[in-house]
Design goal:
The radius of gyration is 23 Å and the shape is globular. The protein has a seven-stranded mixed sheet with strand order 4-3-13-14-15-12-16. The chain has a three-stranded antiparallel sheet with strand order 7-8-9. 45% of the residues are buried. It has helices at 2-10, 37-43, 48-55, 91-100, 112-117, 144-157, 204-209, 273-281, 327-340, 349-375, 383-389, 395-407, 420-430, 440-443, 450-465, 470-478; strands at residues 17-20, 58-60, 62-66, 74-78, 139-141, 161-164, 167-172, 179-184, 189-191, 195-197, 214-216, 225-231, 241-246, 249-255, 260-266, 293-296, 300-302, 306-307, 310-312, 318-319. It is built from 16 helices and 20 strands. The protein is α+β, with helices and mostly antiparallel strands. The longest helix is centred in the C-terminal third of the chain and has 27 residues, at 349-375. The two termini are 24 Å apart. It binds flavin-adenine dinucleotide. Flavin-adenine dinucleotide binds at residues 19-21, 24-27, 29-33, 144, 166-167, 198-200, 204, 226, 228, 263, 295, 297, 314-316, 322, 325, 327-328, 331.
Length: 483
C-alpha cells in the first residue's frame, strides 16, 4: 500500500525502492476493512470491479457482534447512519425518547445497512439523498495477500523498484543517528534519504535500529494471540463480518468469493493454544482449507511513529486487534498523513512531531472504541470477561460513556474515525443505555411521533427488498476467476 501510494503521488520525482523477502513473507491475514479504504483505492485510480475480481473480494455493510453483551445477544455495527434526519435533529435523539418510553424497537431496525445485511442483500448506495437507500456506506472483505500482490504490480508499473532480499542490519549516520543504509544479507547495500519501515511486528528499523520504544496497551486490551484458518464456503456470501464472543476472546468470520476467513483472537492467560484451535475448528462453516496458523502480538503502539528519518507504517507502528477492522485503515492513514507532511532533505523534526501527534491521537481514539466493547459487557461467565469487568477505563473513554449514560449525548470528536452512529451502535449493543433522553426531545416543537419513526423502519424494509442478493450482485458485477 505504501509503495503504491508513494509511486502514484511522487514516483516521477523520487526514487522508490521496495525491499521484501519472500522467505519471511507477510502476516497474511487482514481481510476486513472499513469504508475509508474506498477513498484510498479511488485516490490510486483503482477501479472497484477490477479490484474485487483481483482480490476475490466481497462487500461489507458492517459487523455483527454475537454474544458480546450477555453471551446470547447480538447487535450490528452498521456503516452509515441510523434513520433519517428530522428537521436537522439527529434521528437517534427522537428514537431514544420513544424507545425509553417503550414505543419503538431496537436501534438496529432503523439502520439501512442492517436492513440489507440481515437479508443478505447489497447494491451500491443511491445518490439521491431523499432516498432511504442513500443512508448507508460500505467497505470490502478481500484476500489481503492478493491485494498486496495487486498493489505491488501497481507500484512497479509506476516506477517503484522492487528488490527481493532479506535485510540483515542497518547502518546509522554517526553524526545524526539517522539510518544511512540497510544491508541485505547477501551483502548489497541500500542507501536512502527517508526509510519507511513496513517490516511487520519486529520493526526492523524503527525498533531494532533506532530503539524507539513501545507503549504496551495489554492492560486495556488483553488479547495477544490469534489462531486463523480459511474454510470452504458453504452458502451465499453474507455482506458483513461476524464477530462472535467466546470464552477467552472472539472469533471472526469473513466471507470472500472463494473461501471464508476465520480466526479466534484470544488471551493466552485464559486459554491454551490447543483449546483455542479446537474451539476455532469446531466453529467453522465448512472444511478447513489450510493448517491453522498462530499469530502473536502485543497490543500497543510505537512511542514515535516517525523517528529521525524512519517512518513506521503497518504492524511495525503498532497493533490493535482486528475487532473493528482498523489496521489497514491505519496504514492508509499513515501514508496519506506522510504525503501531507512529506519532508525535503533537511528532514525537519517539526514535521515528524506533527505526524506523531496526529497518529498517536488516531491510535488512542481507536483504542478507546475497542476498549468499550470489552468494558461495557455484562458477561462474567469466564476469566477473560471477569477480568474485563474490573479493567481500568481510559479517562477519555469514561468521559464519553458518562456523557451518553447521563444525557444520551454522543461525543465523537471532529475528525474521529468512528463517528457518532458507530458509538451509538456499540453503546446500545453492549447495554450502555442513557438514563433519560436528551431534553430537546421534550422541549422542542414538532417532535416526530412513534408512528413517524416507524415509517422510517418500513421505508428501510421496502428499500432492502428492492436490492439484489449480495451473492448475485457480486457474481454479475465482479466475479473473480475460480480457484
Ligand atoms: C490476527 C490478525 C488479524 C487481522 N485482521 C485484520 C483485518 O481484518 N483488517 C485489517 O485491516 N487488518 C487486519 N490485520 C492487520 C493486517 O494484517 C496488517 O495490518 C497488514 O497485513 C499489514 O501488515 P504489514 O505489512 O505491516 O506487515 P507484514 O504483513 O508482516 O509484512 C512485512 C513485510 O516486510 C518484509 N520484511 C520483514 N522483515 C524483513 C527483512 N528483514 N528483510 C526484508 N523484508 C522484510 C516481509 O517480507 C513483508 O513483506 C490483522 C492482523 C492480525 C495479526
Amino acid at each position: 500500500m505504501t509503495a503504491a501510494a508513494l509511486a502514484e503521488a511522487v514516483g516521477s520525482t523520487v526514487a522508490i525502492e521496495l525491499v521484501e523477502s519472500e522467505a519471511i513473507g507477510t502476516v497474511g491475514v487482514g481481510e476486513a476493512t472499513i469504508p475509508p479504504i474506498r477513498h484510498f483505492n479511488t485516490r490510486l485510480g483503482i477501479d472497484e470491479r477490477t479490484f474485487l475480481k483481483e482480490t476475490q473480494g466481497s462487500y461489507k455493510l458492517g459487523i455483527e457482534f454475537v454474544g458480546w453483551r450477555t453471551g446470547s445477544d447480538s447487535y450490528f455495527h452498521p456503516f452509515g447512519q441510523f434513520g433519517a434526519e428530522f428537521d436537522q435533529t439527529p434521528f437517534y435523539q427522537f428514537w431514544l425518547a420513544e424507545h425509553l418510553a417503550g414505543r419503538v424497537g431496537r436501534i438496529d431496525d432503523y439502520s439501512m445497512a442492517w436492513g440489507a445485511a440481515k437479508k443478505g442483500r447489497f447494491c451500491h448506495p443511491s445518490r439521491d439523498r431523499a432516498n432511504m437507500a442513500s443512508t448507508f456506506d460500505y467497505a470490502y472483505h478481500f484476500d489481503a495477500t492478493l491485494y498486496a500482490a495487486f498493489l505491488r504490480r501497481y507500484a512497479e508499473e509506476r516506477g517503484a523498484v522492487r528488490t527481493e532480499g532479506r535485510i540483515g542490519s542497518a547502518q546509522l549516520d554517526p553524526e545524526t543517528g539517522s539510518v544511512a543504509s540497510a544491508r541485505l544479507e547477501d551483502g548489497r547495500t541500500i542507501e536512502g534519504d527517508l526509510f519507511i519501515d513496513c517490516s511487520g511486528f519486529g520493526g526492523l528499523l524503527i525498533e531494532k535500529a533506532l530503539h524507539t520504544g513501545y507503549e504496551d496497551w495489554s492492560h486495556w486490551l488483553p488479547c495477544n494471540r490469534a489462531v486463523a484458518v480459511p474454510c470452504e464456503k458453504t452458502g451465499p456470501m453474507l455482506p458483513y463480518t461476524r464477530s462472535t464472543a467466546r470464552e477467552a476472546g472472539w472469533q471472526w468470520r469473513i466471507p470472500l468469493q472463494h473461501r471464508t476467513g476465520n480466526g479466534y483472537v484470544h488471551c493466552d492467560a485464559f486459554i491454551s493454544e490447543e483449546q483455542a484451535t479446537e474451539t476455532l475448528l469446531s466453529n467453522l462453516d465448512g472444511e478447513p482449507l489450510a493448517d491453522v496458523r498462530t499469530l502473536r502480538f502485543t497490543t500497543g503502539r510505537r512511542r514515535k511513529f516517525w523517528h529521525r528519518n524512519v517512518v513506521a507504517i503497518g504492524l511495525s507502528a503498532g497493533f490493535m486487534e482486528p475487532l473493528e477492522s482498523t489496521s489497514l485503515h491505519l496504514i492508509q492513514y499513515g501514508i496519506l498523513r506522510l504525503l501531507a507532511l512529506l519532508p525535503d532533505q533537511d528532514m525537519d523534526p517539526f514535521l515528524a512531531a506533527e505526524y506523531n501527534r496526529l497518529t498517536a491521537q488516531e491510535y488512542e481514539r481507536i483504542r478507546d472504541f475497542l476498549v468499550l466493547h470489552y468494558v461495557a459487557t455484562e458477561r462474567r461467565d469466564t476469566e477473560l470477561w471477569r477480568y474485563c469487568a474490573q479493567t481500568e477505563v481510559p479517562d477519555t473513554l469514561t468521559y464519553k460513556m458518562e456523557q451518553f449514560r447521563r444525557h444520551g449525548v454522543l461525543s465523537a470528536e471532529d475528525g474521529e474515525l468512528f463517528r457518532n452512529p458507530s458509538w451509538l451502535a456499540v453503546y446500545l449493543g453492549q447495554g450502555v443505555v442513557p438514563r433519560k433522553a436528551p431534553a430537546v426531545t421534550k422541549l422542542r416543537s414538532g417532535v416526530p411521533s412513534a408512528e413517524r419513526i416507524e415509517d422510517v423502519r418500513r421505508a428501510i424494509e421496502a428499500a432492502a427488498n428492492d436490492m439484489p442478493m449480495h451473492e448475485d450482485f457480486v457474481a454479475r458485477y465482479a466475479a473473480a476467476a475460480q480457484r
